[in-house]
Amino acid sequence: MKLEREEPEEIQLNMTAMIDIVFQLLIFFIMTFKVVAQEADFNIKMPMASGPATDILDEPPELIRVSLRSGPEGVINSIQVDDEIETLTFGPDPNLYTDLTNYIEQKLAGDGDPESASETEVEFDIDYGLKYGYTVRAIEAVSGKVSGGKVKKLIEKIKFKNNSNEQ
Amino acid sequence: MKLSKTKSSKVLEGDLTPMIDMTFQLIAFFMLLINFSEVDRAEEITLPVSELAIPPEGRPDYQVILNLEPGGNVIFEGQRIPQIDVMGPILKQEVRNADREDVDTGEIAVIIRSHEDTPTGLVQKLIAKCQDEEMENFVLRVNEKIN
Predict the structure, then answer these.
(1) Do B137 and A34 lie within an 8 Å CB cutoff?
(2) In angstroms, rounded to a whole number, what is the distance separating the alpha carbons of residues B108 and A78?
(3) Domain coordinates in residue numbering, chain B
(4) pLDDT in tens, A116-136
(5) Does the structure's ipTM exceed the value 0.90?
(6) What is the rounded CA–CA span in Å between residue A6 and residue B122?
(7) pLDDT, tens digit, for every residue of B79-117?
(8) CA A18, CA A3: separation in Å to the nearest integer?
């Protein structure tokens, strides 16, 4: 007897259900996707609420006091800088942050010590009502500057004088 | 001439493989980018913008995200807390939680997301409140300025 060779059957998977689910997933992710701006940080190490006794003990070799003075409606009015040798006031003008950056840059360059940036600390004394956006701009002004697309780092150590009880 | 009507109809089958490949790749892309930590971010807070701030390198061992509104409300884990003064017990609980995870209080990263119009005094008040619980590692979060 001659056996008839069976031809192999072609197996066909039904893809419709899978494709449906996959497209639903895709639509879900597209609809819930939000483009948000990348966030970044300023790191501040503040061990304890500053008191007069600890201030003296922990005072670093170089301390620059930067006072941010608020005008009406929490807008920056002037910046005062005190490095225990001289006191300077910048503002009120739109370039006061640039003036602050230039001062810090000159101060660090004048020391002639490459380690000077890491050994110098800035203490901010900020008016209670000053809007936080202006404070961040001041922190940015002492932290570094951007010139020709390159970032030049200035001060790394920053702390706040506690003015949280003033109102 | 007589045309034959008995011509068998064929089912047209396109090759679905490239489409499915692309679709899976798109799903993978969106899954990787989706942000599941929306509860930590309060969308109503407009952060100040800075070009010198450093993007965070990974997630700290333990973090506490405090969103501060201009009026002094703190948004913490999706809850609006009306006053900074009542933050004490919440921060104490966070210190205990960190301790359970073997993270020292000094290592807790306190991320402050404050609205740009918030009076700085309120930010300092919040920092002082955290310092009362011996937290010392503060992160001022801003939006990165892209030139």
Answers:
(1) no
(2) 35
(3) 38-144
(4) 667 788 888 999 999 999 999
(5) no
(6) 84
(7) 899 988 899 999 999 999 999 999 998 889 999 999 999
(8) 40
Amino acid at B118: T
CA distance A80 to A91: 9
B57 Cα to chain A: minimum distance (Å) = 10
Angle between helices B88-100 and B120-132 (to 10 degrees): 50
**Those residues with Cβ within 8 angstroms of residue A41's Cβ, 6 or more apart along the chain or in another chain:** B53, B54, B55, B56, B111, B139, B140, B141, B142
Q: Which of B16, B139, B143 is closest, CB to CB, to A37? A: B143
pLDDT, tens only, B28-76: 888 887 766 555 667 788 899 988 888 888 888 899 999 999 988 999 8
B66 with B112: CB under 8 angstroms? yes
Q: Return the structure tokens found at A131.
A: 């809007």
Best residue in B120, B124, B145 for a mutation probing chain A (most A CBs within 10 Å): B120
Residue B90 is inside which H or E element, if any? helix B88-100
- How open is the CA angle B99-B101-B104, to the nearest 5 degrees? 45
CA angle B32, B37, B41 (to 5 degrees): 130
Phi, psi of A53 (to 5 degrees): -70, -45
Q: What is the dihedral of CA A91, A105, A110, A89, to 10 degrees?
A: 10
CATH C-level class of B38-144 = alpha beta
Identity (one letter) of the amino acid at B62?
Y
